[in-house]
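Study both lines:
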Amino acid sequence: MSSYPPHPYAAAEAPHRPAVERSDRHRVWQLVAGAVAFVLAQLVAGTVSVLAHVFNTGALVGSTGELTGGEYLIGMCAGALVALVLYALIVGTIGKAPWLGLRGSSVPLEIAIGLGVGAVLIAGSVGLIALFGGYRITGVEVSGGILLALAAGIGAGFMEEILFRGFLLRILDAWLGTWWALILSSVLFGAVHLTNPEATWLGTVGIMVSAGGLLGGAYILTRRLWLPIAIHISWNFVQGGIFSSDISGTGDSHGLFTAQWPGPAWLTGGTMGMEGSVLTIAVAVIAAGGILHLALKHGMIVGPVRRERRAAREPEAREPDPRGTEPQ
């Protein structure tokens, strides 16, 4: 019976063949193209959302109010699809590594696990915040805010994960090794959230440490995008669409449970939402630590590609001379 995640080396017919595939090429151009693809996907998401609104109301956004949850969801799904297609094209044509980070027989399992992990972590964090008096449910309401949160989850789950894990983390991993790649990509991932309208420094640092480590660790463990994508979707949707938390400082959310968040910002996260709570950060850090421990155990944390190539050449240089003399 096979275990999950797989052992870092293939079966006996291919001994010592690493499961960490890093044979792709032209990484600088991949990174540049990945950044362009991210911008294009965002533009498509916004354009399709507006077109859906025009089709629905016959007027531009502004004259008839804001986008509805359904219109926003249509746009984010379009952006997610564009991001996924562009990623596959870039790694296949520029990187010469078709379907890198996408293929695998365990993809459905990774998606299911990711959705579950994201939901459990957010629910557990809300429970801890409530235990300390920082969260109180005041009612139940089914509204368009649920669709808005789902759209935010799908949009960020695909577009951000493809950029920060599919391109940035993967390419830095090849250049610098896994640990430095994780640190740098997490810092940049957190930093971009400072642009959100209600972001805070504590919340941004929290995203760097917790979400960056958690999502980066999920990619490192599987070397595929599906687990971090699923965790990110569930993480955003459950906090905004179920528990009515602000998502990463983007504004108020109205989920299934109408709620109050009394208490200091260190407990509730303040305007950043529950991602800025020290309790949420602690829960995510513990989960990230567990995932990274598994990744280390299964050999998924590696050094730079150049070091691997150097190590691969050394045994050949040290092979004994068939005439009985050692090479100098």
